[in-house]
Amino acid sequence: MRLSTKHLLGIKHLNKEDIQLILSTASNFKDVLQRPVKKVPSLRDVTIVNLFYENSTRTRMSFELAERRLSADTLNFTLSSSSAAKGETLLDTVNNILSMKVDMVVMRHSASGAPHFLAKHIPAAIVNAGDGINEHPTQALLDAFSMQERFGKLEGLKVAIIGDIMHSRVALSDIYLLKKMGAEIVVAGPPTLIPKYITEALNVRVEYSVKKALQWCDVANVLRIQLERQNQPLFSSLREYSLAYGINRKLLESLGKEIMIMHPGPINRGVELDSDVADGPFSIILNQVENGVAVRMAVLYLLANREN
């Protein structure tokens, strides 16, 4: 089986079979990562450039490690040390990189739609590592892989996505993916951080009480408050947010049931999650980090081996 698309621009562009193929391939690569020798020659002679116009730690390191585990040749592009900082356009930058015979571009950009723009203008395969407030497809895939690993299924799973829905590309990608795979979704958080269109456009239920969302769900995917994307105050203070919408051990113990806690990182400890929850027995946050390498290996492998 092969992916139906040349690029991974967003979950919106994948079908259910694509998602299942990526998750099953990731499971095979996770087995590889448990071996004493964790490297395979699957992408030997494939050249990948990591084009990060936006700061990133976890996503960039995860992609770099995935590429090395697959034996790919890699180039790392940093905005501050590149000609882009001197005014070079995105297309000029990428065309210069492609003249070095690059096969694939992993791209993060602050502008929504930037990877889609590139995909229309260059022949290399494009992997979207996060574009503006649009999508973050590999995060959604690793989230789904982590849920499936724990519960054995996605269909019928009750997932609450909690926090800054308005500015989260993770939320949008998760909603697209989980709905395609048959999960039920509730989004929860302050009214000012939940888009008005979400119920009608994406057919998900909105809950303004975090406790009610937690009582309903099997999985809580808790999102970071993205202050850097907010051009005006959308709640009174971080302390007030924590008191009304933060998740602590006392709240979890009051539910009378166990739920799985996830977070795409980085965590604002003491705001959306207390440390005793983030590091507690119900948290799979470090599992998500581990699974991210296997999922990104799967994506790169499948795109590199797709028949065009």
Q: TL;DR of this structure?
A:
This protein has 308 residues and is of the alpha/beta class. Helices cover 40% and strands 15% of the residues.
Describe this structure in words.
The model is unreliable at 228-233 (pLDDT under 50). α4 (114-121) links the parallel β3 and β4 (125-131). With 308 residues, the chain is α/β, with parallel strands linked by helices. α2 (58-69) packs across α12 and α5 crosses α12 (285-304). The chain is built from 12 helices and 9 strands. The strands form 2 sheets. Strands 7-6-5-8-9 form a 5-stranded parallel sheet, sandwiched between helices. It is globular, with a radius of gyration of 19 Å. The chain folds into 2 domains: 11-135 and 289-304, Aspartate/ornithine carbamoyltransferase (Rossmann fold); 137-288, Rossmann fold (3-Layer(aba) Sandwich). It has helices at residues 16-33, 58-69, 90-98, 114-121, 137-151, 169-180, 198-202, 210-216, 238-245, 249-253, 275-278, 285-304, and strands at 47-52, 73-78, 104-109, 125-131, 158-162, 184-188, 205-207, 219-222, 260-262.
CATH class of the largest domain: Alpha Beta
Helical content, roughly?
25-40%
Mean pLDDT: 91
Judging by the overall fold, what is the CATH architecture of the largest domain? Answer: 3-Layer(aba) Sandwich
Across the major sheet, the strand order is: 7-6-5-8-9
Number of strands: 9
Counting structural domains, the number is: 2
Instruction: Choose one word for the global shape.
Output: globular
Q: At the third CATH level, what is the topology name of the largest domain? A: Rossmann fold
Percent of sequence in beta strands: 5-15%
Structural class: alpha/beta
Terminal residue distance: 13 Å
Largest sheet: 5 strands, parallel
User: Could you give me the name of the CATH homologous superfamily of the largest domain?
Assistant: Aspartate/ornithine carbamoyltransferase
